[in-house]
């Protein structure tokens, strides 16, 4: 299966990627813990079947010092004892926000209460935005058939500049 289009090589695609990266940078610079951001991006990417993003976020998290055990267990986080209560709340929000079409009425009050318990308003704004952004990225990559396996940590660092 070959990619359908290289969005980064297209003028409009490159402009959109730059703005997308700008939003991602705001989220990355927030007080939402980096490890939580990595886990959220990986879990949404797994759910959405985005091999490109699973590859990218696994490698970026590893480069940032995340353990292999935690990365391997993200898909089964409910049955794993390696995540904090705060991370569990973020992962639950990620799953419910990602599966919004399948999980009427969307994010449960119980999950929202857990998120409110562990994160302040700025962190919640970053978390909600991160879930939306990674879902958009997953969908774009799946639509154009970007494949996983060739990502190198930091390879898109210059997109924002």
From TrEMBL:
One Pfam family per UniProt: CMD
Highest rank taxon of the organism: Bacteria
Keywords per UniProt: Oxidoreductase, Peroxidase
Listed InterPro entries: AhpD-like (IPR029032), AhpD_core (IPR004675), CMD-like (IPR003779)
Ranges for domain Carboxymuconolactone decarboxylase-like: 16-96
Cross-referenced NCBIfam families: ahpD_dom
Annotated protein name in UniProt: AhpD family alkylhydroperoxidase
């Amino acid at each position: 299966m070959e990619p359908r289009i290289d969005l980064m090589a297209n003028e409009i695609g490159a402009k959109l990627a730059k703005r997308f990266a700008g939003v991602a940078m705001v989220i990355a610079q927030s007080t939402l813990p980096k490890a939580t951001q990595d886990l959220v991006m990986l879990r949404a990417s797994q759910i959405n079947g985005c091999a490109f993003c699973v590859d990218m976020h696994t490698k970026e998290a590893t480069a940032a010092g995340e353990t292999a055990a935690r990365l391997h267990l993200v898909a089964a986080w409910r049955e794993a004892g390696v995540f904090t209560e705060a991370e569990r709340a973020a992962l639950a929000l990620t799953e419910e926000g990602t599966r919004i079409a399948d999980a009427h009425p969307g994010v449960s009050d119980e999950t929202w209460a857990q998120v409110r318990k562990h994160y302040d308003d700025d962190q919640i704004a970053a978390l909600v935005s991160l879930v939306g952004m990674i879902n958009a990225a997953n969908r774009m990559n799946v639509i154009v058939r970007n494949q996983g396996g060739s990502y190198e940590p930091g390879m898109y660092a210059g997109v924002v500049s």
